[in-house]
Specification:
This protein has helices at 5-15, 19-24, 43-49, 68-71, 77-80, 93-98, 115-124, 137-149, 162-165, 193-197, 202-217, 240-249, 321-334, 385-390, 407-413; strands at 32-36, 55-57, 60-66, 84-86, 105-108, 129-133, 155-158, 173-179, 221-231, 253-256, 265-266, 283-285, 295-302, 317-318, 343-347, 350-354, 371-376, 381-383, 399-402, 418-419, 424-430, 433-441, 444-447. With 458 residues, it is of the alpha+beta class. Strand 21 (424-430) and strand 22 form a beta hairpin. The protein binds S-adenosylmethionine (SAM). The site of S-adenosylmethionine has 18 residues, from helix 7 and helix 11.
Length: 458
């Protein structure tokens, strides 16, 4: 294979001692694999029905490696009948990691030709809503064909720019898969044409597009929802550094260990800017370590900022001593007067204040069990929007007041970060009426105006 010189240099530098093994993997033929379509038959039935030479793929229980000759499953009528999908084994890892469930609302944002969409559809058993989007209309044709071949009945296919979808699907999805367009370094062995499109500038360009897609996707995810980000490239700019960017820009996200990480290699914190340890929870699939092409997978969970609507509250619990410390610290740092009296109740990590001597609400249908004060995070208390709007500006230590017709107020309502001195939770007021929270630090006021209330930019 004739590799771009810059590519080889890049991989040598990244991999060090591992580089010779990595390079040797290009001498091997790519593995062939298929995934049995659970909408039509269980994997064991396909084993009975065919004489294919099948060996299980460790991280996908519906999938097998086969022998190109003599099996040729792509030419078999079972393929036309949608009994399986021919898919690289590594490319099965992102949809496995999403853990889609029947009855959920799932978005596959970069979907064509549909390998992962059909995999997600099988996990949903036809129950729930699957939105498959592909910006490129030509490629969307193949996506539709594959969905039809596989007998998927609960999918809607869009050919939108993701930025156009954000508003329509605001916090709509339980889970989102972003199998991002990328520089394709992991595909050089299987598809040498990808190598011709590569240049040393391509990864940085792709990273910009990946951020744009993510920025459009993230607001579409419900609080408490899961996002899987994957690529088929090795470049850290498009992998660890993108996950790092998500965590910095969207602090409501945290990395969850990729399911089945034991079969893959870990992501590399040392290839990020911040060297954060939790990047080890992401997964790298290397052709010199497993039977498949190159891939990267990260699982991120969006913390519930406020109580997710439509979800049951569950049972209330009294305030734990640790939670009490956090709320008392927040109160002392933020308000002039002592912590309000009343009956504090936790629903999960959400803190409510109930009127004292209020009768028990257990067993009743409750939409809001009292005054929502905010959310207890691991190390701090995050006040609710409701608390800001129920406060008076003279009760709060740090207040930032803007005139109703000022540019700053408009920027705040649009979600921008503003300049501000001071430190800590700051009540933003319009003509002295509270309108929301900000958090001041290092000369800036981080915007905590709720995302679902933000004003459009004209
Ligand atoms: N998930 C697919 C599968 O498993 O079959 C493969 C997806 S491929 C890695 C990435 C896809 O993203 C391509 O089909 C490409 O057309 C699409 N894409 C390119 N630019 C995009 C954009 N700005 N927004 C969304 N998708 C885009």
């Amino acid at each position: 294979m004739k590799f771009p010189v810059d590519y080889l240099e890049q991989m040598k530098e990244l991999l060090g001692d591992e580089f010779p093994d990595f390079l040797a993997s290009y001498e091997e033929k790519p593995e062939r694999s298929l995934r049995v379509n659970g909408l039509k038959l269980p994997p064991s039935r396909l084993v009975e029905l065919t004489s294919f030479h099948l060996e299980p793929v460790p991280w996908c229980k519906e999938a097998y490696y086969y022998q190109h000759e003599p099996d040729r499953p792509g030419k078999h009528p079972y393929h036309a009948a949608g009994l399986y999908y021919i898919q690289d084994a590594s490319a099965m890892s992102p949809a496995e990691a999403l853990e889609a469930q029947p009855g959920e609302r799932i978005l596959d944002l970069c979907a064509a030709p549909g390998g992962k969409t059909t995999q997600l559809a099988a996990k949903m058993h036809g129950d729930g809503i699957l939105v498959a989007n592909e910006i490129d209309r030509k490629r969307a044709g193949a996506l539709v064909e594959n969905l039809e071949r596989c007998g998927v009945s609960n999918a809607v296919v869009l050919t939108e720019n993701p930025t156009k979808m954000t508003k329509r699907f605001y916090e709509y999805f339980d889970r989102i898969l972003i199998d991002a367009p990328c520089s394709g370094e992991g595909m050089f062995r299987k598809d040498p044409a990808t190598m011709e499109r590569w240049s040393s500038r391509l990864p940085a360009k792709c990273a910009e597009l990946q951020k744009e897609i993510l920025a459009a996707a993230i607001p579409m995810l419900q609080p408490g929802g899961r996002l899987v980000y994957s690529t088929c490239t090795f470049n850290p700019l498009e992998n660890e550094q993108i996950v790092e960017w998500i965590l910095e820009e969207y602090p409501e996200f945290q990395i969850i260990a990729v399911p089945q990480l034991e079969h893959y290699q870990s992501g590399r914190p040392e290839w990020s800017k911040s060297n954060r340890e939790d990047l080890r929870l992401t997964g790298r699939l290397w052709p010199h370590h497993l039977r498949g092409e190159g891939h990267f997978v990260a699982v991120l969970e969006k913390q519930a900022e406020e109580l997710p609507r439509k979800k049951r509250l569950g049972k209330g619990k009294p305030l734990s001593p640790d939670a009490k410390k956090l709320i008392e610290k927040f109160w002392k740092d933020t308000y002039h007067q002592k912590l309000t009296r009343g009956h504090f109740v936790m629903f999960g990590e959400h803190l409510y204040l109930l009127p004292e001597e209020f009768p028990s609400i257990e067993g009743l249908k409750v939409e809001k069990p009292g005054f929502y004060l905010g959310q207890l995070k691991r190390s701090h208390f995050q006040p609710s929007h409701a608390l800001a709007l129920a406060s008076h500006s003279d009760q709060v230590q740090h207040v930032r007041n803007y005139a109703a017709d000022s540019d700053e107020l408009r920027q705040y309502l649009q979600g921008d970060t503003l300049q501000s001195e001071g430190n800590g939770w700051t009540l933003v007021t319009v003509d002295h009426f509270p309108i929301g929270w900000g958090k001041a630090s290092s000369g800036y006021l981080k915007n905590h105006y709720p995302k679902w209330l933000r004003w459009d930019r004209k």
